[in-house]
C-alpha cells in the first residue's frame, strides 16, 4: 500500500501515463490474444521466443500509437481511463465466455434490449469490472501530470516516434514470420483488446449509418395464391426457436428425454440443419431473406422483400407474434403482436414471459382469421442465455439440480446441462400445445414448421453462449433443430417421402422457398429445388394420378 501511495504522489509525463496504460492493456486485457499467439507458434527455441517477444513489443507500440491518436496526446489520463474501462468489459466477455467481437457481434449488442443486457450482470462481472476497470481508472485520475500542455504534448509525440520506429523495425525484419502466422491464424486478430472491437464497431456504424440507404427492392410485384381443392383453408404456423441445439433433442437421438411430449405426436425431425448465423440479429433476417448465407448482407436484406412480404402480398393473412426481443426487421410490413412482460403476473416476471404466453394469442389469431390462407409466426424466447433458469416455470424442472444464476461458467457441468435441457424440455411442451391448437382447428390444411435461429456453446472447449464468427464457430452454435408436423403426413406416401429426407443436409437457406410452398404461394422468385417439401408433394400427386 505504501508503495502505491508513493507512486501516486509521483508526477508523470503524458508519455509515461500512456506507456503505463498500454502495458496494463497488453499484459492484462490481451491475455487471451497472447495466449492464442503462444499456442499458435509454440516457441521452443530462441528464434521462436524472440518472435513471441516481438508480438508483445509490437502490440505495446501499437497501443501507444492508437491511444495517442484517440486523444491521449492532449488528454492522456481521460483516454487511458476510458480505454481501461472498455477493455475490462471486453476482456470479461472474452475470458469468461470466449466471445469474439466481430461485426455481427456488434450488431447483436446494438439490438440487445435492456432485459437481455441485465441478464449478464452478476457478482463475477462486478468483481472483474471493479478490480480491473474502475479501480485502475480512478487511480489514473489520481496521479499528477507533469509539466504544462506543451511539454506534455512533446513527451507524447516523442514516445510515439519511438513506437513508430519499433513498429517499422519489426514489420521490416519479421514481416515473413508475421505473414505466415497471420495467414494460418487470422482469427487471432479478433482477440486484440480493445482495438478489434473498435474496428468492428466502426464497420458496423459505417454500414448502418454512414452509407446512404439502399432503395427498397420489390422482388415480385404480383405473387398469387395457388387455387386449393374446393376452396379449402390453409393454416401455416412457423415457430422460430431461440438458442436451441439440435444435439439436445431426444428426437435426434439425445439420450435424455427432452422431447417427452412431441414424441407422442406424428412430428418429424430433420437432423442435419445448419443456421445462417450464430446470433439472432443475423440468423432471423437471414432465414427469411432471398439471399443465401454465402451472400447475405444485412444492409441489402433489409432493403428488399423477404419471404413474409411475398406471402403477404399474395393475399395470405400474415401475423408475427413475438416473445423475444424483436423480429429483427422481418415483420416490419406485416401485422405484429408483442407482449408486455409487466402485464401478466402468471406467465411473466416483469422482464420476460414464458413461451406458453404465445398459445392464447395463437388461438385468438386463428379464430379471428381474415383470410382463408393464414401464416402465423411465433418467435420464442426458448433457451436464451445466460439466464437459462428464467426460461421455464418453477413447476417445470425435469432435470435437477439446475444452474439458477447468470455466471454459468461457475456452475458445474451437470448443473449447466440440466438447466439448458430444462429449456429444451419446456420448448417441447409448448410446441406440443401449439400442435394441440392446430388439431382443434377446423381448417383443412394445417402445418407447423419449427426451426431454431442458432445453437449454443455450453462450455465445450471453454466456450459459452453464441455469436462466434461463422468461419470458426463450433458445430454446437450452427447445428439447429427443425421439426415438421402437418395434416399432409396422414398420406403414407407423403410421410414416407419426407421421412427419407430427415438425414439430408438442409440449412436456413431453404426456409424462404419452403415457406412459399407451405403457404401455396406462386411467385416468380420461387426456387422449387430449395423447397424441402416440393419433391414429395409432386411425387405424392403423381402417385395418386
**Mean pLDDT, as a whole number?**
91
Shape: elongated
- Enumerate the strands of the largest sheet in spatial order, edge to edge or round the barrel: 7-6-8-4-9-12-5-13
The rounded Rg comes to 27 Å
The proportion of residues forming helix, as a percent range, comes to 40-55%
Question: Mind describing the biggest β-sheet?
Answer: 8 strands, mixed
State the total count of DSSP E strands.
Answer: 14
Structural class: alpha/beta
Strand content: 5-15%
Terminal Cα span: 90 Å
Low-confidence stretches: none
Number of helices: 19
Q: In words, what does this structure look like?
A:
There is one protein chain. This protein is of the alpha/beta class and 545 residues long. The chain is built from 19 helices and 14 strands. The protein has helices at 2-9, 14-29, 31-41, 46-72, 76-97, 103-110, 114-118, 123-142, 149-184, 195-210, 280-287, 298-301, 307-314, 357-367, 413-440, 475-478, 492-499, 511-518, 534-544; strands at residues 11-12, 144-145, 224-225, 234-241, 268-274, 317-322, 335-338, 373-379, 445-452, 457-458, 464-465, 479-486, 505-507, 521-522. Strands 7-6-8-4-9-12-5-13 form an 8-stranded mixed β-sheet, sandwiched between helices. It has a two-stranded parallel ribbon with strand order 1-2. A two-stranded antiparallel ribbon has the order 3-14. Helix 3 packs antiparallel against helix 4, helix 5 runs antiparallel to helix 8 and helix 17 packs antiparallel against helix 19 (534-544). The longest helix has 36 residues, at 149-184. It is elongated, with a radius of gyration of 27 Å. It starts with a helix and ends with a helix.
